[in-house]
Amino acid sequence: MNITIEPILASDAEEIIDIFNYYTEHTFAAYTEQPISYDMFEPFFHSSRGYPALTARDDSDTVVGFGMLRPFSAIPAFCRTAELTCFLRHGYTGKGIGSTLLENLEDRGREMGISSILASICSLNEESIGFHLRKGFRECGCFRGIGTKKGVTFDVMYFQKMI
Length: 163
Fold this sequence. Notes:
Elements: E1 4-7, H1 13-26, H2 41-46, E2 53-57, E3 63-71, E4 81-88, H3 97-111, E5 116-122, H4 126-134, E6 138-149, E7 152-162
Parallel strand pairs: 4-5
Antiparallel strand pairs: 1-2, 2-3, 3-4, 5-7, 6-7
């Protein structure tokens, strides 16, 4: 399978929201409890304005994943730090797509002066934790018991990678 990495377009809205909503409904990877509507794409995507925001597409031009960097803080002292969001279509993990997206986001982040990427991960999301550790992220903090979804309380773990 060939994967093409391209900037997110407004026409990708439904596919991106569908990918995100899978994780909302079936996992703890997305913190939201209810699916978000297609109308929420603009505010969802807006958080990454001016930062890299990419899709991964397969041979049939289907969006099989997306990733974006967004500012960690609006305070200028933190302008070299970005937060990462990355989700793959269900059934497409373990195929190198997440690695390809991350590498492209890192390259584009470096080009704009980003030197540190943070990832916020639910403590119950062992697959994501493992992925980030394998990709050079290091655990740098944990907020205990601050999240609750579907009646289950979880920790929020922060990981950091210097690029």
